[in-house]
Structure formats: C-alpha cells, structure tokens
Amino acid sequence: MLQSDVNERYSRVGPGTPTGALYRRYWLPVATETEIAENPVKRVRLLGEDLVLFRTDAGELGLVAERCPHRGASLGYGFPDGAGLRCPYHGWKFSPQGECLEQPNQIPPSAQLRTRARTTGYPVRALGGLVFAYLGEGEPPALPRLDLFALQEGRTRFRDIGYAMIPCNWLQIMENSFDPTHVEWLHGRLFNYHLERAGEEPTVLGGHHIKIGFDLVDYGIIKRRLREGQTEDDEDWKVGHPVYFPNVLKVGGYGLSSFQIRVPVDDTHTLHFWYCWYDVPDEFAHLVDEIRALPDTYEVTLQDTDGTFLMDTIDSQDAMVWVTQGGLTTRADEHLSSSDQGIALYRNLLRSQLQENETGGTVMNVRAEGREDEIIELPQEKKELGIGGGGRNPLASFLRTQGVYSARLSALSQRIDAALRKAG
C-alpha cells in the first residue's frame, strides 16, 4: 500500500508537482507525423497544460499555449500563415517559439505590445513518425533514438502507429507493465471465456506462471517470466520485456516489434501509443507494397458506444483494468502480494528518480545534447508472443490486439488469406 501523500506525489503530473517536474526532463510524443500532415493544427494537452501543435507553411513544427494572449480565444482553431499560426479571432500571428509576429489591427504598430504578447512555446521534433515535445526549462536534452525509431520500411517490413486517450492516471498503466501474471488470467483465462462463447479458437496465453523475475538495468527494468513447460533457456526468461524509464515498454515476437508509450496528459488521462513494426515472411513480400499507401496511423477503439469495455482484444482488456481502478486510484487500501514485486521495484525506481531530480542529481535516460545519432538498442523476444488463432496467416493473430483497427494490418491480413486460399 501507499499512503495518500506518497500516492499523490507519484501520480500527479501538473505544473509544480514532483512527477510533473520529472516528466518535464523528457521528450514526450504528442502526435504522429501523419496526423499533422493531414491537419496542420492540433489541440493537445500534456502534463496538465493546454497547447496547440502546428506546422507552418514552410514545414516548421511549433507548440504553443492554446490561450491567445490577446483576448483568450483558442489558437487551436487558428490556421497556419507563412511562418506562423494565426489566431482565429483577430488574426494575431505567433511563431513556433511563441513570439507574436503580427497584430493586424493595431494602429500604429507597437513593438512593445508584440513583445508583451509573447506566449509560451516549447521545442518540438519529429522522429520515426512521431512528433515529440519538450516542456522543460533551458536547452532540451538529446531526443533518445530508441532502436525502433531508427528502423526504415523495407520489402517485408512496415510501420503502424495506434493511439488512444485512456481516461486514467499514467501510473496505473505503467504498473501493469511490471505485472507478468495478469497475462495468464486477463489475456488467457478471461479471453478464452469470451472466445469460447463466440465460437472462436482459444488463445495460448493461459499458461501458468511458476517463476517471475525483475532486473534493474541502466535504462530501466527488465521483467522475466517462466511458465509451465518452459525452461530458463526460453526467451520469456532469458530475454524478457524491457521498460525504458519512465514510460516505454518494448514487446514483440513472431514478426512484431513494438513500443507501448504512455504519455501523461493530466492527472486522470493518458495518451497511449502502440508503435509497431511488422516483418512478414518473404513469400508475402509482394503484398506489402499493396498496403503502403494506406495510413500508418489509426485510432484504437477500447469501449463500446455505451462505455462498456470491449473484451475482444488484448489491449481493450488491459484498458478495462486500468480504467476501472478509477481516474486516479487510491493505493492506501491495496494488498500487494509476491506477484507484485515488479510494481514495488518500479515504485522504488520512481522514488529514487524523483529525489535525484529534486536535488539536482543525474536522472535516468536524460542524455546530453549531441548524442542523438546514437541508437539505443533494447532487447526483445523473437518467438515468445504466441497469441493463438492465427492459423497459416502470420498476421491473423495480431488482429486480437489493437492492430485490428489498423488499415494496413487488416488489409494485408486479408490479402494473405486470399493468397493462401488461392494456393490451396
């Protein structure tokens, strides 16, 4: 259990909070490049601040406070014009850095008024199809080039990025990443209950855990599992799932490599990205080109129209348990068991990093500027992500994940099914 004051310290992320200050040391994704290419103005909320992401006519990215300094209208309904963003109300124009460039109806023009009208602006950079923002003070650190961000599409490989707004606190989502045994129940036993009722083939995720382990490493934590029938030579134990502190989980297997990135929007909302790379067998390489024109970004549906959580994907099952704990859960009445040792380890790591940040120490994964060309390799299982229900189609089982909402994955899976039927 956590006392309420400690829970608040770990969970809350708004301006002036300890965890909010820690997160302001990191680059955080706020959108995909595809989104901002389709619509160059996007309202975003990050760490309790209402902001507007935009792209100028010249292609420069900007992130500024949503409230216009003139009379408070939303810049999120403005439009790009030349080197800046116009307010929809009176046309005041702001640069990507927040400088007021023009005040059209101010007669005579006033350089002093433009200076006073400067608004908050934050650094923005694009990497690997995502748009990252830095809300900290001073010069930003290097934007970490994690291994999947450095990949390129190839004849058998393509990228997909799913996203959803999760109505709960970020820490509830992250703690799930250190809870191996939930897989056999939530994604195994429960999933099979629903699959059986629907007359579908069961998943293979219900194997009983006989051993779990966690290693603290220089970039975060690796979690390991050993299920009945496995040995310590199996990848589930030998390789494990890495978490890059503070908010990136890497998982994969059977042709999938992915990051789950959890971005604190405010105390009770989290922007979740599923950043995925798929690599199909050579025999289906010719089909990959047929789906490249489809968008690589998609929104993930987790709830039915009445608010009931869907139970037909692994990710909607996860979202159900995250959100039903409450918008910002209390931990004063929890009863941790031996299966929760990873959660305890992550909380201790978070505590130590909060202390380091508050005392001016070295914070994990805040890397010096000038190291952005260095690729950060993270371990990943290659074969252990068996979900079941795939048959001969190597992508079909991924339709039991958030990928079912991906235009690219769904279209390619359909093409593979057609090719397999034709081949007999």
Report on this model:
By secondary structure, the protein is of the alpha+beta class. It has eleven helices and 21 strands. The strands form five sheets. The chain has an eight-stranded mixed sheet. Strands 2-3-4-9 form a four-stranded antiparallel sheet. The longest helix is centred in the C-terminal third of the chain and has 18 residues, at 341-358. The model has no long low-confidence stretch (mean pLDDT 95).
Features:
424 residues, alpha+beta, four-stranded antiparallel beta sheet
Describe the structure concisely.
The protein has helices spanning 4-11, 18-23, 33-38, 111-116, 170-176, 182-197, 235-238, 285-288, 314-323, 341-358, 407-423; strands spanning 27-32, 41-46, 49-55, 61-65, 79-81, 84-86, 93-94, 100-102, 121-122, 124-127, 130-134, 145-146, 157-166, 209-217, 220-227, 241-244, 248-253, 256-266, 269-279, 297-299, 375-376. It is α+β, with helices and mostly antiparallel strands and 424 residues long.
Gyration radius (Cα, Å) is 23 Å
The helix tally amounts to 11
The residue ranges in which pLDDT falls below 50 over 5 or more consecutive positions are: none
Termini distance? 57 Å
Number of extended strands: 21
Question: Numbering strands along the chain, what is their spatial order in the largest sheet?
Answer: 14-15-16-17-18-19-13-20
Largest sheet: 8 strands, mixed
Round the mean pLDDT to the nearest integer and report it.
95
Q: What is the overall silhouette?
A: globular
Strand content: 25-35%
Which percent bin holds the helix content? 10-25%
Output the structural class: alpha+beta
